[in-house]
Amino acid sequence: MAPKLLASTFLVTCFLSCAVAQPVPARKKPNILFVLMDDMGWGDVGFRDSQFHTPTIDGMYSQGVRFNNSYTPPNCGPSRAALLSGVYPWRMGLQGNAINSGSSAAIPLGRTILPQKLKDDLGYQTHLVGKWHQGFCKTEQTPTERGFDSFFGFYLSKQDPFSHLSKKDAYDFRSDHEVNRSVAGQYSTYLFSERTRQLVREYKDSLASNADTKPFFIMLSYSALHAPNQVPQHYIDQHCADVSDHNRQIKCGMMAAVDEGLKNITDDLKAHGLMDDLLVVFTSDDGGDHEEGSSNWPLRGNKRTLWEGGIRVNTFMYSESRDILPETNFTWGGLFYISDFYATLSGMIEDTETRKLPEIVDSYNQWTYIKTGQTTGTNRLEIAYVDQDLGVAMLRRDQWKLLYMQSRHPGWYNPPPGVTAREEPNRNDLPKYQLFDLDRDPEETTDVRKDNYERYIRMAASLREVRRMAVNPIDEDLHSDPDRFDGVWSPGWC
User: Fold this and answer.
1) Fewer CB under 10 Å: which end of the chain, C or N?
2) Which PROSITE patterns match (predicted)?
3) CA dihedral 155, 160, 165, 168 (to 10 degrees)
């Protein structure tokens, strides 16, 4: 072979081998803003009720990935336990009202929860802003001991949003472990939004001085729309004056305050050039309480029930980056449970299609379907829930939903203006089991057991097995007493 040909062949070979040897750049991990609402009804937002002023939320919803079949437990504590652990709460005895001010109940300390997974395995800085409600009888149960780098918020299930007094008129607000009395008198929604803005500024400053700054996971856990119904009057005057029902008018103002906070946060992210690195997740921990002015219309039922209005919630993902969300502006109809966020966020960060994490028994990775824009299909085939305290249970399989002993709040409540409410059924007339086809009847108007008897028999047998497996709710009263801690709800009493 001629020398020139040998040389050219060597150069080509070197070029190809060097090209192959170049490392593939790691996929950039997105920052995550996880917005968790509290008791937000299906109809408590502008894209479902035009009287509500939520343009920021509406815009992200319209341009994001909308989850049409997103479910939670029917009340706050179990829902947050499922989100953080990836496990059905009835496997841990955390259904019902187990996690309360007088109980040691909490996700078992030996279980790795979502912020620990993100921090220790996936390289995130993690922050909780707002409501915790996952136990605090000992320090090991509190947020900064369970994987959050920082905590700014409160321990219990609810509080006065201005005074931050909770049960027994005791104070409940912390910065990390320290009691924070400087916020007394300031509205909680404003405080939580401003703390999130502060975290964003700190992240931007860290980026400017340190190229190795970890991506952030901020769980913005608003206490709105949970009772008590309170909001600064100017939100009502500016945005909700036309809402005739008094309680619903206040809910409207509370949502307007949330939307303003999210606008300010996203405006800051845009100003700092961070929107292209951001995934926003928005959901609620359960449905709304119609007696407090929320609306789940046209869904049936209420918070603390297994009707659709108690457990089916508004959920969406939003990003301006196609590297994060390759497909947007579509409604995904796959079955999703709040426990699925554990595996789905992990799958999105690692860009893996692994269906389940082996140690997380009730969390399914739905990232395959979300990223490709599929409007149907899911890794989850069914949802099961048991609450022995309420005496109820539920199994959803495909479009079929079987209810057991569901009698509380059996009606359809707080319809929008101009819509006539349905007549509320007599709860004494409700059968022990009811079967609904949610594809044809999402409002649960017609029990179809008789026309689908064999399906009903199979599902009833499955539901009985679920009820047999469910751990009884943790039921104890340790008489926690804030008077022992200078009138502050504090750990150290169990």
Assistant:
1) N
2) SULFATASE_2
3) -90
Closest CA to 434 of 452, 413, 409: 452
Question: CB–CB of 300/237 below 8 Å?
Answer: no
CA-derived radius of gyration, the chain: 24
Backbone angles phi, psi at 106, to 5 degrees: -170, 165
d(CA 344, CA 322): 17
Residue 21 pLDDT > 50:
no
Q: How confident is the model at residue 211 (pLDDT cuts 50, 70, 90)?
A: confident
Which domains can be identified in the chain, with CATH numbers? 31-381 (3.40.720.10), 387-469 (3.30.1120.10)
pLDDT of res. 186: 98
In the 8-state DSSP scheme, what is residue 479? -
- Tell me the pLDDT tens digit for each residue of 236-285: 999 999 999 999 999 999 999 999 999 999 999 999 999 999 999 999 99
Q: If phi over 0 gives left and psi between -120 and 50 gives alpha, with beta otherwise, what is residue 264?
A: alpha
Confidence class for position 361, pLDDT limits 50, 70, 90: confident
Per-residue tokens: 258: 């949330």
Q: Residue 388: which of 42, 93, 21 has the closest Cα? A: 93
Residue 342 φ then ψ, to 5°: -55, -55
Question: What values do phi and psi take at 160, rounded to 5?
Answer: -65, 125
* pLDDT tens, residue by residue, 389-440: 889 999 999 999 999 999 899 999 999 988 998 988 988 889 999 999 999 9
Smallest Cα–Cα separation from 191: which of 179, 215, 170, 174?
Answer: 174
Q: State the pLDDT at residue 287.
A: 98
Pairing of strands 150-154, 125-131: parallel
Which stretches within 216-275 are classed as H helix? 233-239, 246-271
Lateral strand order in the sheet of 178-179 = 178-179, 174-175, 150-154, 125-131, 216-221, 31-37, 278-284, 315-318, 65-71, 330-337
Alpha helices (runs of H) in 351-481, residue ranges in sequence order: 367-372, 453-469
Q: For 457-480, what is each residue's pLDDT tens digit?
A: 999 999 999 999 999 999 887 878
> What's the CA gap between 32 and 26, in Å, rounded?
18
Tokens 């992200």 correspond to 60
Q: Is pLDDT at 156 greater than 60 in this prediction?
A: yes
Q: Quickly tell me which residue has 């649960």 as its tokens.
A: 444
d(CA 259, CA 242): 18
**pLDDT at residue 83 is higher than 70:** yes
Helix (H, G, I), strand (E, B) or coil at 281: strand
| Of the candidates 416, 417, 422, 390, the residue with the CA atom closest to the CA atom of residue 404 | 390
**455: its two tokens:** 């399906």
**In DSSP terms, which residues pair with 384 in a beta bridge?**
395
Measured CA to CA in angstroms, residue 197 lies from 5, 143, 169, 328 at distances of 63, 20, 30, 26
